Amino acid sequence: MAIKSKKKSIKQAINTENATDHDDYISLLFGSEGIVAPFLCIAVFGLLVRLAVSLHSYSGAGNPPKFGDYEAQRHWMEITTNLPAKEWYRNSTSNDLAYWGLDYPPLTAYQSYVHGLLLRYFDPDSVALFTSRGYESYLGKLLMRWTVLSSDALIFFPAVLYFVLAYYGSRPSGRKSDVIWHIALILINPCLILIDHGHFQYNCISLGFTLAAIAAILSRKDLVASVFFSLALNHKQMSAYFAPAFFSYLLGNCLWQKNPVLEVLKLGFVVIGTFALIWWPYLHSTDGVLGVLSRLAPFERGLYEDYVANFWCTTSVIIKWKRLFTTQWLKLLSLGLTILSCLPSMIQQIMAPSSKVHEKSILLPLLPATLLASELPCLFYVLMHYALFSMFPLLCRDNLIVPYFALHALFILLYLAPCGRRLLRPHFSAVDIAPLSLTTLLYLCSIVLHIVYFTSHPPKKYPFLFEAMIMSLCFSHFVFLALYTNTKQWMLSKQLTSRDKEKKLS
């Protein structure tokens, strides 16, 4: 009887908590301090900023024979609208994989198909098989830009609203100005805007699904989170960087339930079901699945192709990985190092799952840092600055210098808005002089490198010297931030555990 009574009280408490959350959401949306009107205003401004950036150049503009990312996306629309799904990832006379072959998961292919139908309806020549390669008509470019803008508006923007409701729904006492400031920083993310609406990609879709998954976890809807994150993984394999955080949190949460096996089975069923639905055209044979998988991890091209601020590119200046190891060994080495780097954060989440620290456990935390801008404003600014700076050589090649500096300036103005300055004061007062001085010095170095990149030419013997310097500076900050966020996560976990013990004792 005592057990039944306890179960009943727990169920009543959960229902009461859910009802309270629902009331908080309604109040946050439509109450006297509602955010619907401010959100719509910021969203319209964000769309206008995206439109302004899309008026500039893009990756590979007028640069035959392979052009760039813009042509890759257009070519995928050409392939998906003219060939059956089973042929999308297979090399054939109709689909030369050497020319921008599909190398993203099936959800990207379906997205390309839907967008390709739009292009074929208004401008059939833009997706005509074979004859549309390098197609750059005014109408074609307008339609292509519209597909990115609509994807942003239909997926990323609603995900931001969902996150804000989940994040601030349990904080009804928070200032409305702080919420609006946070919305502006998420929606007007200069890195995302420059890559998607300048360089030309569709990261807004996979990041939108990831953001929705985070919001679902904050709302204690783990099954919904599993569906959203499965969609993110099936749109871009880049989302796998977030997988350790989601996997460890969801697994840890299941293990602490009354029926852990049943909870794990439920999550497994949802994830496998979502994957099976998306991969259905390729599940007819082993060759079909392996054909897609081989395109998703093209290690034959190497672990790095450009001066990107990651481990492999940065260390390749000193260690020539391609000469020391075969491709097979590099695959295993990459997998091992990735697991080792994620292991501490994963162990912590399995041992003490908490949505409070969930977003901090991701090693490439630009999106999570943006979501935590109100809690870690200084870390957020440093990360955003060096994330932007790491893209600088790429954006120079794409002739996107004006949008780069304009969005950088806009971001600083938003960051230093009155409510932003109020949130920054307690963080600056807690910063030691030595770390602040070092950060300032490195910040000045980045400014100097901007000037050097524009005004000087590298030695002929080292044509990519400036890119290597930018890459090394940015990577050093990313390593520091990864170590800092993991340390912060463990410390916060201990604080939460000690609080729980105090509550039990009282």
Automatic annotation (TrEMBL):
This protein's pathway: Protein modification; protein glycosylation
The UniProt record lists the keyword Metal-binding: no
Q: Does the keyword rRNA-binding apply?
A: no
State a GO cellular component annotated for this protein: endoplasmic reticulum membrane
Main localisation, per the record? endoplasmic reticulum
Keywords assigned by UniProt?
A: Endoplasmic reticulum, Glycosyltransferase, Membrane, Transferase, Transmembrane, Transmembrane helix
Annotated InterPro entries: Glyco_trans_ALG6/ALG8 (IPR004856)
Any Pfam family from its record, for instance, is Alg6_Alg8
Where is the protein situated, by its record's location annotation?
A: Endoplasmic reticulum membrane
- The record lists the membrane-crossing segments as 35-53, 142-167, 179-195, 202-218, 238-256, 263-282, 329-350, 362-388, 400-418, 430-452, 464-484
Q: What is the E.C. number?
A: 2.4.1.-
How does the record classify its membrane topology? Multi-pass membrane protein
**What are this entry's molecular-function GO terms?**
dolichyl pyrophosphate Man9GlcNAc2 alpha-1,3-glucosyltransferase activity
Report the superkingdom from the record.
Eukaryota
The entry assigns this protein to a family as follows:
Belongs to the ALG6/ALG8 glucosyltransferase family.
Q: What is this protein called?
A: Alpha-1,3-glucosyltransferase
Source organism phylogeny: Eukaryota, Viridiplantae, Streptophyta, Embryophyta, Tracheophyta
